[in-house]
Amino acid sequence: MAAGGPGVGSAPHIPSASSLPLAALNVRVRRRLSLFLNVRTQVAADWTALAEEMDFEYLEIRQLETHTDPTGSLLDDWQGRPGASVGRLLELLAKLGRDDVLVELGPSIGAAGSWWLSPMITCKARNVTSRLSLHSASLQVPIRND
Some GO term, biological process aspect, for this entry: which one (predicted)? Predict the structure, then answer.
C-alpha cells in the first residue's frame, strides 16, 4: 500500500447494477413494473413466474395473491432476501422473456438507480460528503454553518 494510507489517490469503488440494492427502485418504477406483471396472462410471464424464479414457495405465492399489488408485495418481500438486487431482477425478467418490461422500464430503472451508482465526493476542507449527479454537470454541496 502507499505510504499515504488506503485509498489515497485511487478512484472510488462504484458498485455495479448487480450489487445495486432493490431499495434503489423508486415508487414510480415499482408501480410501472406492477402494471406489467400484475396482469395474469397466458402469453407472458406474470408476477407468479417471477416469484418462482426468486425461489418463493407455493404457500408464499398464494399469500401474495391476496394483496392488491402482488408485484409490489413480492418486491418488498424479496428485498430482504440474500441475492436480491436490481441486476438480479433484470436477469430474471430477461430469463422469463419479459423483454417488453426491460425495454419499457430499463431507462427508468437506470435513472432511478443512477444516484446509487454515482461516486461519492468528499470535500475534506469542510468534511462534507455529497453525491455527484449524473444528470447535471454541477455539484451541489451543503454548506455548514460552523
Answer: innate immune response
Q: Which residues pair with 129 in a beta bridge?
A: 122
Q: Give tens-digit pLDDT for 103-146.
A: 988 777 765 554 444 443 344 444 444 443 333 333 344 454 55
Q: What is the pLDDT of residues 23-55, one digit of tens each?
A: 888 899 999 999 999 998 888 899 999 999 999
Instruction: Give yes or no for a contact between 86 and 109, defined as CB atoms under 8 angstroms apart.
Output: yes
**Contact between 37 and 49 (Cβ < 8 Å):** no
Query: Radius of gyration over alpha carbons of the chain, in Å?
Result: 19
The whole-model pTM stands at 0.65
Q: What are the φ/ψ torsions at residue 23 (nearest 5 degrees)?
A: -60, -15
Closest CA to 73 of 85, 61, 84: 61
